[in-house]
Specification:
The chain has 263 residues and is mostly beta strands. The chain has two domains: 60-157, Immunoglobulin-like (Sandwich); 167-262, Immunoglobulin-like (Sandwich), CATH 2.60.40. Helices cover 14% and strands 44% of the residues. The chain has three helices and 14 strands. The strands form four sheets. Strands 3, 4, 6 and 7 form a four-stranded antiparallel β-sheet that branches. A hairpin with a 5-residue loop joins strand 11 (198-205) and strand 12 (211-219). It starts with a helix and ends with a helix.
Length: 263
């Protein structure tokens, strides 16, 4: 190669390094998509693939499991039972919009007699009751109950870990009418937002602190400063008193206050 040819080649290489490559890099950085929570890649400040960091979806392995405190069944008629589970979500920064669960009822010989599936929400940083009514077990008597979450829970970010419904609750009014216990509370919305409809559940504890009875009723939506009476009843008188009542007023906070989820 002549000197003139080598000089042309050197000039060409310099042009590539000084002009072409910078232009290619500039075009690539402009065309390359920004990291987001739906590109099936771990990028940005994500903890996992499309989860954690700035993403609404939380990585499941970073969240605590929902704790089942107890599961119980209550006979309401021959062959007919209601079932509840008291559960606790200790995650202050995460909620679940839809959780699949299964109640399994066993007789006194530990033989399965009924299975019922359902779905519920799980609010952040709270204890709540899962209720399933009208379970037919035929001629069997229920000995124990198990509740299981049948699918991995999908967790979403929230800042509502310390939120408490603005509900004022009156003292319980307990009475027995025609040998049937009845209980009612008055609820008042003390906030400035309408509280959506949900459900109220009462759990009855005996003198040994065992959950022996429970009842669920609909809680209608409450406008600001509006009041509502919720009434609970049972088919037979409680045993092993004195009794303690725990009231759970439950609404799906994801639909009520979670602005981040609604975006």
């Amino acid at each position: 190669m002549t000197w003139a040819g080598r000089r042309k080649m050197i000039i060409g290489l310099l042009l590539i390094f000084l002009v072409v490559l910078p232009l290619v890099y500039f075009a690539f950085t402009k065309i390359k998509p920004m990291p987001n929570c739906f590109d099936r890649r771990k990028n940005g400040n994500e903890v996992g693939i499309d989860c954690g960091g700035a993403c609404v979806l939380q990585c499941p392995y970073t969240k605590k499991d929902v704790v089942v405190i107890f599961a119980r069944a209550q006979k309401v008629a021959d062959g007919l039972y209601n079932a509840i589970a008291l559960v606790e979500n200790k995650n202050t920064d995460a909620f679940a919009q839809s959780v699949s669960y299964t109640f399994k009822l066993y007789d006194e010989h530990n033989i399965p007699v009924a299975i019922r599936n359902g779905q519920t929400y799980i609010n952040p940083n709270t204890r709540q009751v899962i209720f399933k009514g009208g379970i037919n077990v035929g001629k069997h008597e229920v000995g124990r109950v198990v509740v299981e979450f049948t699918k991995p829970i999908t967790w979403f970010s929230t800042s509502l870990g310390s939120y408490v419904l603005p509900l004022a609750v009156s003292e319980s009014n307990y009475r027995v009418i025609n040998d049937k216990p009845m209980l009612n509370y008055t609820l008042e919305n003390t906030g400035y937002d309408t509280i959506p409809a949900g459900n109220s559940v009462v759990v009855v504890y005996d003198s040994e602190n065992n959950a022996t009875a429970f009842s669920s009723t609909i809680m209608d939506s409450l406008k600001p400063f509006e009041k509502q009476i919720v009434v609970f009843s049972w088919p037979s008188i409680f045993k092993n008193g004195p009794f303690r009542f725990e009231l759970y007023n439950q609404v799906n906070l994801a639909e009520f206050k979670n602005k981040q989820f609604k975006k």
